Amino acid sequence: MENIASQLEAIPRSDYLKELNKRKQISDEALSLERIQREKEYNEKISDTIFGTGLRPSVVGKINSENPHMDYEFVSFDKIERKEPVEYVDNKKCDYDMEMKGKSVPSSFFMIKEGEIEKGKQWYLNYDPKLPEEIAEMMARYNWGDLKYMTKKSAKRDRKKLLKKGKDIGSEYGLTIKHSDKNNPIVLNFD
Known about the structure:
The strands form two sheets. This protein has a two-stranded antiparallel sheet with strand order 1-2. Strands 3-4 form a two-stranded antiparallel sheet. It is built from six helices and four strands. Strand 1 (about 55-65) and strand 2 form a beta hairpin. The chain has two domains: about 10-80, no CATH class; about 90-170, no CATH class. By secondary structure, it is α+β, with helices and mostly antiparallel strands.
């Protein structure tokens, strides 16, 4: 076997193939350099006419194919169009609804942790700006605070304890209960 391989290498044809391979490599490098030069000229043209001005070249033609990497646009620098600025949406303004027990709840609701009553209050006030602050605080306390674990029996027990001390259950839990009299009526406006 070794003898046959050495005889094949001695054939002048293999030198011819090596020469062809070298020529192909040289032509590939030349084409690559030419392509890089064309890209450079194109980029310089674009940077001179477009960057920072809000302008873009007009699209003259398009080639679409099944492969999206093979889609091309042909542009003309003779007609330059004004490019509209891109508007980005702040990620804090994006809130997606999630299904929970048949109801859709915003995902920001789940970002508030247990015990963060003030954040919960702000969430309710942002979610519904017409909501009174006292109601928003109660709802936040119900979802993330101490009212979550309150039962009817525990509320009665706490009320009895506070009455013995001479305190009101409303003031203890952050609620102010107003009583009206003839001279100072309570007026509710519904918008």
